[in-house]
Amino acid sequence: MRKCGTPAHGPQDLFSVKHLMSTSVKTAVDGDENPAERHRQWVTRAKTGEEEAFRMLFEEFFPKIYGMIFHMVGQVETAEDLAQSTMVQAWRRLNQFDGRSAFGTWLYRIGVNTALDHLRRRKNRPMESLEVAAEAGIEPAVNPEPPGGALDDRELGAAIDRALQKLTPEHRAVFVLGEIEEMAYEDIGRVLKVKRGTVMSRMHYARRHLQRLLRPFYERAQS
Amino acid sequence: MSELNPNDRQLIATEYFDGALGPEELAWFEENGLASDPVVKETLEGARGLRELVRRGARPEPPAALAFYWERVRADVQGVGRAGARPMRASWRWATPVRVLATAAAVLVGIALVLPRGGSMMSTVERAESRQPGLYTSVVPARGASVVWITGLEYLPEGYVLR
Amino acid sequence: MRWLAVAWLGMAGLAAAGDTRAEPWPWGALVLARMDEGPNDPRLEKYLPDLKRVFGYRRYEIYGQAWGTGPANAESIVLPTKEFFVKLRPRGEGNRRLGFEFFRNERLLVEGEAVMPVSAPLFITGPEYGHGKLVMIVEIRDVAPKGR
Q1: ipTM metric
Q2: CA A213 to CA C14: how far, in whole Å?
Q3: Are C35 and B61 in contact (CB under 8 A)?
Q4: For residue A222, what pLDDT band results from cuts at 50, 70 and 90?
Q5: Which domain range does residue B88 map to?
Q6: Do B52 and B112 lie in a common domain?
Q7: Residue of A91, A184, A207 with shortest CB distance to B77
């Protein structure tokens, strides 16, 4: 399976979830060493009603699903709620999971759709928007421009999250899944139910938009 | 190569950067010297710079109280909320079941937290409620303190200065 | 009957003299919980085990702290910041039953009732703040603020 960000083009970071998305079983099956097989076993046990098995899935996936949704919605508490909702939906629908894709792919599909549904609803509830909150007099002290001194990773992270929120949800989803979660185009296509070409073009335009938004930070990092 | 307009070259560069070209496409890309095409080079450099920036930026911390969320998920699936997924907090018609579930989950977590200590003097919350739409509360007894846990509060960005 | 009155007054006086502690007074702090490493605020030492157990963050700093505007047996406002504060009202006598109201600016977020013995803190969670969280601590202390 081809991944976004092969070693030839950039480092693999600590937050990669690619091992969770893999559908291939490389060597002799060992539930402890092969994540896909481990997940399959947990799913099988959870389907029989074994709560502990689903708890294992929860512990492994909840933080990752939360991280992905956080990048989608840009708010901690909302992300926690939506990640929780994702896990609840997954548990309830577990019998519908037929194992044709990896459990992670299936779960990410639920999570992304939960986040996208939320974002569509939020369009009609502007008071949840930070921008509107700012208009109402809540002024974040974070400077939209990079600080004059050394580029602080935390400040940079906040700027990236703000910039992500300026993308359309569809472009944001592709960027988050591809660039942050390091999913392959094929997997992104499965999660979002779009064609590979659509994934590619959305990724391209998301990058271009973000490059414009983050240019001051980018230039500072370069210097 | 000359058949490709700049937009197509950018798109191919994106696929190349993401390792999404198949073996034949990759061979074609290399045979045509696309890596040295100015439009492709610019696209690759831009993508590389953005990737470095994104990976350098701090990640959101995972939720701290994982056990708390597990209990909420468990209560939601096994409790009265079987009819549908956990509702969003702003949906008022779900507010009551959410409070019930959140309270039940909080009590479960609380019991686990308070058990080892026994009966020392601690504060006891007898009632906590919010009339604000979208806010709901749970009471979590810890060992040495009681906790009124409010969910639904507006997120404050890093650096927000409290008055 | 006069001896009875004198004895009564004498006992009351002794009881009052014996109670050398100040009247209980509410105190509160708005705490910023963070995941990054760093020193905890030493003023939070006694609360740290519970804060860490409940919230799971690594670092706890006081954003603001304040004594209440009145003693625990009267209405009191604990105002560690102007933005987030708590109003306390006694409910009944003797058992430290207090009504509490948690505000953000003029907006009442949560109200409720709690039995709060001396030195038994109540935590009220505030909003997420950046990558951390705000937590309000309210406690009845057996010392009054200076000057009271």
Answers
A1: 0.83
A2: 74
A3: yes
A4: low
A5: 66-151
A6: no
A7: A91
Which residues does chain A have within 8 Å of residue B153's beta carbon, measured at their own beta carbons? Answer: 77
Nearest residue to C128 (alpha-carbon basis) of A74, B144, B123, A202: A74
For the stretch A83-141, pLDDT in tens is 999 999 999 999 999 888 889 999 999 999 999 998 887 654 433 333 333 333 333 32
Whether the Cβ atoms of residue A191 and residue A102 lie closer than 8 Å to each other: no
Evaluate whether residue B37 is within a structural domain: yes
Between positions 134 and 193 of A, the ones with CB within 8 A of B are 138-142, 153-161, 178-180, 184-185
Question: Same structural domain for residues B37 and B102?
Answer: no
Residues B45 and B71 placed together within one structural domain of the fold:
no
For residues B50 and B72, state if they share a domain. Answer: no
| Residue with token string 């974070």 | A142
CB pair distance less than 8 Å for A158 and C130: yes
d(CA C81, CA C102): 12
Q: Say whether C113 sits in a helix, a strand or coil.
A: strand
Q: Please name the residues between 44 and 103 in chain C that touch chain B, using a CB distance below 8 Å.
A: 47, 49-50, 53-57, 63-64, 81-84, 97, 102
Q: Between A and C, how many CB-CB pairs are < 8 A?
A: 8
Q: What is the CATH number of domain A18-222?
A: 1.10.1740.10
Distances (CA, A) of A16 to A6, A176, A178, C88: 12, 11, 10, 48
| Partners of chain C (3+ Cβ pairs below 8 A) | A, B
Are the beta carbons of A77 and B152 separated by less than 8 Å? yes
Question: The tokens 């009271």 sit on which residue?
Answer: C148
Q: In which residue are the tokens 């950018």 written?
A: B10
* A61–chain B Cβ distance below 8 A for any pair: no
CB nearest to B123's CB, from C110, C115, C134? C115
Q: Please, what are the averages of pLDDT over each run of 10 residues along chain C (148 residues)?
A: 47 42 84 89 91 85 90 89 91 82 90 92 91 92 74
